[in-house]
Every structure is written in C-alpha cells, then in structure tokens.
Amino acid sequence: MPRIVSLLPAATEIAAALGLMDQVVGVSHECDFPDEANAPPRVTHCPVHNAGLMSGQVDRWVRRALRENGTIYTIDEPLLRKLQPDVILTQKLCDVCAIGYGTVAKLAETLPGPVQVVNLEPASLADILDDIRRVGRTCDVLERAEDLIASLSRRVKDVRQRAAKITKRPRCFLMEWVDPPFCSGHWGPELVEIAGGFDPLGRKGQPSAEIQWQVMLDARLEVAVLALCGYGIERARRDYELLRSLPGFNSLPAAQSGQIYLVDAGAYFARPGPRIVDSLEILAGILHPQEFLEFVSRGRDDPRVVCVGEKENIQLR
Predict the structure, then answer these.
(1) Cα–Cα distance measured from residue 4 to residue 28, given in angstroms and rounded to the nearest whole number
(2) DSSP E strands, 181-231
(3) Confidence check: pLDDT of 312 > 60
(4) Are 85 and 4 in contact (CB under 8 A)?
(5) Which candidate, 45, 52, 41, 54, places its Cα nearest to that of 12?
(6) Which end of the chain is flanked by fewer CB atoms within 10 Å, N or C?
C-alpha cells in the first residue's frame, strides 16, 4: 500500500472518500476534513493562514510574497523525507491555493526511492471527477473511484435535470473576494449554470480575476453569493459589511431583493473534491428554493450557507 502525502485539502478529501486515510502519512496546513485529516503531521505552512488579517491585507501580502518569493508557502523538507512517501498529491492550478507543482516535483527527485507526484489541476466539474479517478488509479483503488464518480454524477444529473425545467435563470454573481473584488473562475460559473442561473461576470474554465466595482453595479446582479476563496462564513460575514459600505451597494438588485448569501467556500466552492457537488446543491437551493427545498439554508446557524438579505426570514421559513 502506498504511503501518501497530500498537499491539498481537496486531495485529502478524495483520499478519504476512497478509503485511503490510513495510508495518508502527511497533509498540508489547510487539510481539515474529515476529522481524520487532522491526525497526520502537517508538512506545509503559510504565515497568513489564520493570521486574522483583513481581506485587503491578505491580498496585499499574497501579491508581495508571490512577487518577492514566487510562493506564499513553505514546505518542511526534513519532515517530508522522514515520512518517506510513495505518492505526493499536489497541484499546478493556482499559486495561491497550495504549494506549486514545480517545487514539489523538484523536491521529490531528491527523496529516497521512487516517488510518484500526482498533479491535480481541474478547471471544470468534469476535471474534478477525473482527478478522483486519477487518485484512485494511482493508489490502486480505481473501482472505488469509479463508484464514487458514479454516485456524484447521479447527484449532478438530478440537479441539472430539475433546473433545466425552470425558465427563469437569475443573474447570479459568485464572488471569490471582496477587497479587491474578484469574480469566480474555473468550475464556479459552471456550477451556477447547472444550478439554473447565469453568472455574467464569471470566467468559466479560466482563473478568477479582479474586477472593478462599477462593473458589478452595471451587471444588475439579481443574486450575489460571497464564496471567499479558502474561507468560511465568518470571514464572509465581515466582508459583507465591507461590501455594504461600497458606493452604490443599495442599487444592486440583489441588495434590494435581499438575495445576498454567504457560503463556506473553504469547505465547498473553493475545494475541488467530492464536496463540490454539495456546492452545486447549495447553489440550487439559493437560486430556486421552491424547486430545491431540501438544499435551502436552514437559517443563520447553517454552516453551509446563510442569507443576509432583508428577505431572509421570509424565504427560509
């Protein structure tokens, strides 16, 4: 059985869903699900992680670190050598999401014994499912992977078919950052589309990007979802107050109709593993609550999604 080091929260979740957690000997500083992910030693570190910085401060720190160092992460090389992994799960997708593939691959060449470095680089929902297959094949549990993919695909198909019957497709903005504003990219706009909405500002299959506040105002957004990359609802609550302070906020149709939502993007939307389908279902409950009643927010204490608009109490009863 291969000894696995996972440098991605999503990869750790994939490994867990495939029944491989007893083979995971090391994880990243952000791996936190399922509970067993907190047991292995952490082989990466990021100074800004849980540092309590405001969103603008995080953005400036990340930009400066990438400019000066090319990365925002450090890896514990002595620990990695001690763990003697056979497989390292990493990524090329985003320099902000996790330690870069090139750094990992170069380090793996110096480790004793053959080490297989597996790159997970999804840009779409189909890519995420393919990554599950890739991990399953690498770790000799391909049949389990195919079963998991089939189960997830059935849930996606159910949402797609039900949403396809709805004629009204709200203009929904999936927002990845507030200060400065970032639109969603990669699989984000695709999830909105499958759930029965339309993200006029999203970059489907491409990296997310900074946008101007005026562009958001001009888009006449009917629904806004704060899915802050790598963060949960509490960060989104703070940043929602920042969003409300921007000039013209009250002119947004989403603000006027009370259709502004906060989601746990760290657990769902920004984590391309099995729970990405939960993200799709959350969006379906936001966009079409009458059709997807089982996915609608359960109120202010819902750990997945809360509505902060004026119509919250009416909608969620």
Answers:
(1) 12
(2) 182-183, 185-186, 203-204, 223-226
(3) no
(4) yes
(5) 41
(6) C
